[in-house]
TrEMBL record, chain A:
<dbReference type="InterPro" id="IPR024185">
    <property type="entry name" value="FTHF_cligase-like_sf"/>
</dbReference>
<feature type="domain" description="LUD">
    <location>
        <begin position="61"/>
        <end position="165"/>
    </location>
</feature>
<dbReference type="Pfam" id="PF02589">
    <property type="entry name" value="LUD_dom"/>
</dbReference>
<dbReference type="InterPro" id="IPR003741">
    <property type="entry name" value="LUD_dom"/>
</dbReference>
<protein>
    <recommendedName>
        <fullName>LUD domain-containing protein</fullName>
    </recommendedName>
</protein>
<dbReference type="InterPro" id="IPR037171">
    <property type="entry name" value="NagB/RpiA_transferase-like"/>
</dbReference>
From TrEMBL, chain B:
<dbReference type="InterPro" id="IPR017900">
    <property type="entry name" value="4Fe4S_Fe_S_CS"/>
</dbReference>
<dbReference type="InterPro" id="IPR037171">
    <property type="entry name" value="NagB/RpiA_transferase-like"/>
</dbReference>
<feature type="compositionally biased region" description="Low complexity">
    <location>
        <begin position="300"/>
        <end position="310"/>
    </location>
</feature>
<dbReference type="InterPro" id="IPR009051">
    <property type="entry name" value="Helical_ferredxn"/>
</dbReference>
<keyword id="KW-0004">4Fe-4S</keyword>
<dbReference type="InterPro" id="IPR024185">
    <property type="entry name" value="FTHF_cligase-like_sf"/>
</dbReference>
<dbReference type="InterPro" id="IPR004452">
    <property type="entry name" value="LutB/LldF"/>
</dbReference>
<feature type="domain" description="4Fe-4S ferredoxin-type">
    <location>
        <begin position="389"/>
        <end position="416"/>
    </location>
</feature>
<dbReference type="InterPro" id="IPR017896">
    <property type="entry name" value="4Fe4S_Fe-S-bd"/>
</dbReference>
Length: 168, 772
């Protein structure tokens, strides 16, 4: 993990019109709170000393999944080359929570950003070996050109933010 | 093809050119341009394509074993694998799963079972929607393009962008009529928002989600879905039951084999570096089931949410059910077919469609069969629906080879089209008019071949006869009644100018000026004048057109080579087989390839270079001969043969003096249109470089093709399509610029469209210019 990898990740996300913020673990909760439009739902963050803002609902009900404007999830890793985040299908609902609300806030540890797709597949294989064998590579915003022009936010989020935990 | 069917085909194509062509061209050509740009910006593209190709070759080779592997893996995960022999088998299984789930499901109170689907060409192939609906099951397509087709009751016109042929205005009209909104829909944003909300509700209430699979990893039971909208994710994760329907050829051995495909599929399909969502699921997944009928229940079901968030222990929630339906439907037979096997490597990215000039003009409703469209469709249709399904559109592949560099798994799509054309030729019943072409067509084909095809496939003999009787043959051919007969019998469109055959062939001219001995003297004089020491000898391959019709470019080639110090021989050589190949006459081409090699063997032994003017003939020697000649012969001829301007470039690079040629003023603009097959051989650049070295500033065309493609544009049923494609090229070329083109038919087409002379670049460069 080098600073250049984060820079590469940031440039890729810029091209996808996805915001990236580098924050310390201590500041993460506040920054997430600022970005999350309410009502917000989320998955508990597995990083040491990083909590979701108090206003974020975990273990949402089906109605809350539908009503939420923001979904906050950790991601297993990120691929700098393409601006990709790896959303793992977990029992606490990371897959639907990252998919249904119109805004997805993905939280990733800086040490989990890998330079390219080849390194991404190494991480993917490690996860498969550990039983995390359902993963979505999500890159940018849901899009379609089927209605004649490019439109974002079709079945998935039209707005994506990535929070990089610089000390994790 | 009989007269009435030619006319029907012409009508059908004209209709598509007018109705669907403009929208298809806009989207397909834009995707193709993005693909080219992305390919160009990918450093390891060739390695990636080669790797993807070899993984597919190995996977198809091991297919029976992979089927057993995936069965074990999916069953261990807690899912079920069903191998369906054919469409009816697959449909019956899926119908049964849906009915069972609807009866057992928590929302069993619903009026009729419901299915939501993400885009899948394989389910189009088996007409799954019709089968489900016939059983009283509601089916909703959730890919926006597929949903538009479902509402409009139409079929896909492109394997990736199924509703590519329908404009935004037409979609707005359709939605406004169907849903009668308070304020009429107009913009793409409004239409998309409405579709998202409407489909979102249907997905939330569905009993079963049906998806396809772009790839299936055998040893982990992982299905991969590649989408930009996110609908496949929703269909897979929302209903409790997920059915994935995939052709058996989608199996890859391991996760690491998936990597190059994830990396390349979006690049080839749309020119994106990667798609928005590459969903790799090993179902049943750990994701909680979503029950929107119980809105107040936590989706994670309390204790289901492991504290560490992984939920990684054991199979997914017991509420989830997963079925993988692997479809054979002819694929295992394709695997045994040496010529069609390659089709199974196809990843259905649509790059062959996007790169194809004819496809851009008519779309998949013209260039497509029952299910599949574009160049590779010939292989798919022949394999899964039978070759009659490929017969209707197979001719639209002109063998231009634009798709060869586009295909991410390096499938020789033109060859598959040639093979199927050959098989179709052989399956036809003997028709009338054989007597008319029999005398002119000394081919190796059995009877029953379309007379037009036989005529064009044997064009060398036809040209020889016409030349021998010129100018009488030309006067005759131009006469109205004769054109009517040619159109009726051979399908030659009477709007086309026919080639004017010359009484004196190039070979005659060369012999008349002293032959090889005189050429050696001329070259030696030039050598001593220029002071360069060019120690080469060339044999000029005289293609039919250069020998009998466009003799000037042959003379220009001879004069240019001599002026650069290279002695030339111009023997009477057999045909290359290109004409036969373009008509699907492989046996004839095979015989011609052997004859040509035999005729050139002594020259090759003597170290003479074979120099070719017509790019399509060189392409036959460099591409198809690999399949027609023993490997040593193929390599020998390939390594010893050159396109004329490529050869001149090599001479100039090795010290030949360009001032011996007709040079421009240093920046003299000239429009240059290369040739499709020449581009595929990477031989556009040498011509451009030679023109630059000689003081010209070539402006290179970017259009896919001239549209003529040898005999294609002469045929009555394709004349208008040929002109439509050609117009796009003509529009690129600035008024007033001199125009040069490497291919004979490209030149003919441009002369018709631009109404001025179009020469071969060698005529511009030859000393003394294009004199006769």
């Amino acid at each position: 993990m080098t600073v250049d990898t984060v820079g590469r990740f940031e440039r890729a996300l810029e091209g996808l019109e996805v915001g990236l913020e580098r924050v310390t673990a201590a500041d993460a909760s506040e920054r997430i709170g600022t970005i999350a439009a309410e009502p917000a739902i989320g998955v508990p963050l597995p990083f040491d000393d990083v909590d979701l803002p108090a206003s974020v609902t975990t273990d949402p009900m089906a109605a809350e999944l539908t009503a939420a404007r923001t979904g906050i999830t950790p991601v297993g890793f990120a691929i700098a080359e393409y601006g990709t985040v790896a959303v793992e299908s977990t029992a606490n609902g990371a897959e639907p929570i990252s998919l249904y609300p119109e805004r997805h806030v993905a939280v990733v540890a800086e040490s989990d950003i890998v330079p390219d797709i080849s390194a991404g597949f190494d991480r993917l294989a490690d996860g498969f070996d550990a039983g995390r064998d359902s993963v979505v590579f999500a890159t940018g915003r849901s899009a379609t050109a089927d209605m004649g022009d490019l439109v974002h936010g079709v079945h998935g989020p039209g707005d994506v933010h990535v929070i990089v935990l610089e000390d994790r | 093809m009989a007269q009435h069917t030619r006319s029907e085909q012409a009508d059908r194509i004209r209709h598509l050119l007018e109705t669907e062509g403009p929208a298809i061209h806009a989207h397909a050509s834009a995707s193709n341009a993005r693909r080219k740009e992305t390919y160009g910006g990918t450093d390891d593209l060739e390695e990636l394509r080669t790797e993807a190709r070899s993984i597919k070759e190995a996977a198809i080779d091991r297919l029976p074993e992979l089927i057993e592997t995936v069965r074990e893996a999916v069953e261990e995960n807690g899912g079920t694998v069903y191998i369906a022999d054919d469409a009816a088998d697959a449909n019956a299984y899926v119908t049964d799963v849906v009915n069972r789930e609807a009866t057992n499901g928590a929302d069993g109170a619903a009026a009729s079972p419901s299915v939501v689907k993400s885009k899948s060409m394989t389910t189009e192939e088996i007409d799954l929607n019709d089968a489900l609906e016939a059983d009283g099951i509601d089916v909703t397509e959730t890919d926006l393009g597929e949903w538009v087709l479902q509402l409009a009751d139409e079929t896909p016109s492109h394997i990736v962008g199924p509703a590519m042929h329908i404009s935004r205005e037409e979609i707005a009209t359709l939605f406004n009529e169907r849903f009668d909104p308070d304020a009429p829909f107009e913009t793409a944003t409004e239409l998309t928002r409405f579709a998202r909300d409407h489909l979102g509700e249907i997905i939330d209430g569905a009993d079963v989600g049906v998806t396809g699979a772009n790839f299936v990893v055998a040893d982990s039971g992982t299905i991969t879905l590649v989408t930009n909208e996110g609908n496949a994710r929703k269909c897979a994760v929302t209903p409790d039951t997920h059915v994935a329907v995939a052709g058996v050829e989608k199996l890859l051995p391991t996760l690491s084999d998936l990597e190059p495909f994830v990396d390349i599929i979006a690049k080839s399909a749309t020119g994106q570096p990667i798609s928005q969502y590459v969903t790799m699921l090993s179902p049943p997944t750990d994701s909680p089931t979503l029950d929107f009928d119980a809105p107040d229940k936590p989706i994670t079901a309390g204790e289901g949410a492991a504290a560490d968030g992984t939920g990684a222990d054991g199979p997914g929630t017991q509420d989830r059910e997963f079925h993988l339906v692997l479809l054979d439907n002819g694929r295992m037979d394709m695997r045994e077919d040496d010529q069609l096997r390659e089709t199974l490597y196809c990843i259905r990215c649509g790059a062959c469609s996007n790169s194809c000039a004819n496809f851009q003009s008519v779309g998949g409703h013209g260039f497509g069969g029952e299910t599949y469209s574009g160049g590779i469709a010939t292989g798919w249709e022949a394999g899964v629906h039978g070759q009659e399904s490929a017969a209707e559109f197979n001719d639209l592949c002109t063998g231009c080879t634009n798709c060869v560099d586009a295909c991410p798994v390096k499938i020789d799509i033109p060859w598959i089209n040639t093979v199927v054309r050959d098989r179709l030729n052989r399956s036809d019943d003997p028709e009338a008019y054989d007597f008319l072409v029999d005398g002119l067509t000394p081919d190796a084909e059995s009877g029953g071949l379309d007379p037009g095809k036989r005529f064009f496939g044997n064009i060398g003999t036809v040209a020889k006869a016409a030349s021998a009787t010129a100018p009488v043959s030309n006067w005759l051919a131009d006469a109205g009644p004769v054109r009517a007969v040619l159109e009726r019998t051979l399908g030659i469109d009477r709007r086309r100018d026919l080639p004017t055959f010359r009484r004196e062939s190039l070979v005659d001219w060369f012999a008349g000026r002293g032959g090889a001995a005189a050429s050696s003297r001329r070259a030696a004089r030039a050598d001593s004048r220029n002071g360069a020491d060019i120690d080469r000898e060339a044999v000029l391959y005289t293609d039919v057109y250069t020998n009998y019709v466009d003799i000037d470019r042959g003379k220009a080639a001879v004069r240019t080579l001599e002026a650069l110090g290279v002695p030339v021989r111009v023997p009477n050589l057999p045909e290359s087989g290109r004409a036969a190949l373009s008509q699907g006459m492989i046996a004839t081409a095979d015989r011609q390839a052997s004859r040509l090699y035999a005729a050139l063997a002594e020259d090759l032994d003597a170290g003479r270079d074979v120099v070719v003017i017509e790019p399509s003939d060189l392409a036959a020697m460099h591409r198809e001969y690999e399949r027609l000649l023993p490997v040593d012969s193929y390599e020998r001829l390939r390594d010893g043969s050159y396109e004329i301007c490529e050869y001149v470039y090599g001479l100039l690079e090795n010290g030949a003096d360009p001032t011996a040629l007709s040079t421009g003023d240093g920046a003299e603009p000239v429009a240059y249109h290369s040739h499709c097959q020449q581009r595929t051989l990477d031989l556009e650049a040498p011509t451009a470089a030679v023109l630059e070295r000689c003081g010209y500033a070539p402006e290179l065309s970017s259009a896919e093709c001239c549209g003529m493609a040898g005999s294609f544009g002469y045929k009555r049923e394709y004349y208008e399509l040929s002109m439509d494609v050609g117009e796009r090229l003509a529009e690129e070329i600035d008024d007033g610029l001199p125009v040069v083109a490497s291919g004979t038919s490209c030149g003919d087409q441009l002369e018709t469209l631009l109404e001025r002379d179009v020469a071969h670049p060698i005529e511009l460069l030859a000393p003394g210019g294009a004199r006769t």
